[in-house]
């Protein structure tokens, strides 16, 4: 067991669990919660002695005290919400404030689907069969944070898209924390089920409006059925008093397509765990990421793709730009089973360091047990090309603008498969703001 007894958060978890269970109306998860808490106690929080956290210390997170029961009251204004939007007047959006779904702040026009807040779904007996079939079946059982989430999950949403239903409008999910006087701890849980032939696109963003710290431990399970398509876009641009541990698991059936795009621009410490599980042939999986951070921020991407069937493809393209004393981590794994012949797996991680204090630890990995495959991986770490800088400056462009333009071009190809124009424009604007360059869209 890891040495965690001195950590404030660990003691709070053990002390608060009984009170937390009493605060819930439903009971069919109680046994699972108790088991998960026991697993968490046995595992303990990971330290840098653990291989998966070798380059990422979570000590600053676990030494703080947190409020496990956030205040529900808030004073979010329409103007504040408008600033978070992407200009998506034609989208649907769901707003959670301090863990609670607020219909008056949301816009939901989608029909013929099952959409519920996670807490409500847990209380609804008619969804018990669905939960028994899907819930917690692909989320890892052997990590501290996934067990902690199962023990405490209450906030988040459940969405089931029936067979052959195509949701034309993207759905933007906002998780907002505001009016909290203490550091606050959220365990967010999302469950997305996309049945055969269906299609949906989700955008997820987290926002802390307070100066107190927020720790969000989020677990998302995505199930993409045969011939279905699911896209999940994570927009991470929170303030410097926010911690995010995000674990996303996607299981795909034959002939399906699933994409997870992760855009990390803000937050004090962000850890993204992403697992794709292939459960059929002719599957396509796409993972793209752009990270631009500075000061003393840390963003850690851990990805894994499990190729278990033949004739499947996966693509990973992660770009990182690091300034100040920022620290980036990328650990990408591709597993190819011996029966997964004709696999095509591509993995690339490219990084630019803009200062002497910035660091990146990158480790792409392949484990291949089949002999008829096409798999490649690679990583680069460096600075901007001096010849390209000279070329731009020779045409009257200042050094600062030339650097920004090159960095923009460097990051831009990681968002080429975004087919939501307002989202693509928002990412482009954030890139321009981070790089301090004027770019017309």
TrEMBL record:
Residues in SUF system FeS cluster assembly SufBD core domain copies: 181-410
A Pfam family that the UniProt record links to this protein: SufBD_N
UniProt cross-references to InterPro entries, sorted A to Z: Fe-S_cluster_assembly_SufBD, SUF_FeS_clus_asmbl_SufBD_core, SUF_FeS_clus_asmbl_SufBD_sf, SUF_FeS_clus_asmbl_SufD, SufBD_N
Domain of life: Bacteria
Domain spans labelled SUF system FeS cluster assembly SufBD N-terminal: 10-173
Entry similarity comment: Belongs to the iron-sulfur cluster assembly SufBD family.
Protein name as it appears in the record: Fe-S cluster assembly protein SufD
Species whose genome carries this gene: Chryseobacterium lathyri
